[in-house]
Design goal:
Length: about 190
């Protein structure tokens, strides 16, 4: 069984925890009640990490790590990224006020992990206020090698499509770098989560 670690980053309220829940079902999450500021948007926010596992195919196990969106937890980004094979930056495509923050996060990951394959996922494509991928591309200016795709993270098929693309890019990248990953790093321990 090949095992890949993928990190899901992005601004507050983008839909990171939702994506991981959609794919993995029962997950380890650290959402806590929001007491100030952003609490007008929703009641709970991730304060440390999300973690879930799912089988993409019979031979591929994916370990998903979600970052907290609030800026004050930014120190978790590097911690969660150790050993990752790829990452997704998720943006709320129906909330242009979050794009500046999304660009900061995107640029941080690109600068810090310049050789790691990634996707810019533009979430909430089901909402009437969705601005479309072109507008997001124009503002965030992703690396030309990075796919930018619309998704609905609460929809299972959409979430799976995103992950199929992510793993395809990861496998393409690392077959060009022999000896890199795809190794069964967790072995028996992961059986406990299945
Ligand atoms: N319409 C729609 N709403 C979504 C979608 N994905 C997430 N949401 C909603 O967006 C809000 C934020 O979702 P979360 O999964 O908590 O977002 P997050 O990125 O984990 O947020 P933080 O951990 O606080 O940074 C919730 O109210 C979700 O129900 C989607 O695809 N479509
Ligand atoms: Mg979250």
């Amino acid at each position: 069984m090949k095992t890949y670690k993928i990190v899901v980053a992005g601004p507050f309220n983008a839909g990171k925890t939702t994506l991981i829940r959609t794919l993995c079902g029962k997950i380890l999450e650290t959402d806590r009640r929001i007491y100030f500021g952003e609490g007008v948007v929703k009641d709970f926010t991730t304060v440390a990490l999300d973690f879930g596992l799912f089988k993409l195919t019979e031979g591929i196990l994916v370990r998903l790590f979600g970052t907290p969106g609030q800026k004050r937890f930014a120190f978790m980004w590097d911690i969660l990224s150790v050993g990752m094979h790829g990452y997704i930056v998720m943006v709320d495509g129906a909330d242009p006020s979050s794009f500046k923050e999304a660009k900061l996060i995107y640029d941080y990951f690109l600068d810090t992990f310049p050789y790691t394959p990634h996707i810019l996922a533009v979430n909430k494509a089901d909402l009437p206020g969705f601005v479309g991928v072109e507008e997001v591309k124009r503002l965030i200016k992703p690396h030309p090698s990075a796919p930018v795709i619309p998704i609905v993270s609460k929809d299972r098929e959409s979430a799976l499509n995103l992950m199929r693309m992510m793993i395809r890019i990861v496998e393409e990248t690392y077959t060009k770098r022999p000896g890199y990953p795809g190794v069964d790093v967790m072995g028996e321990l992961e059986n406990e989560y299945r």
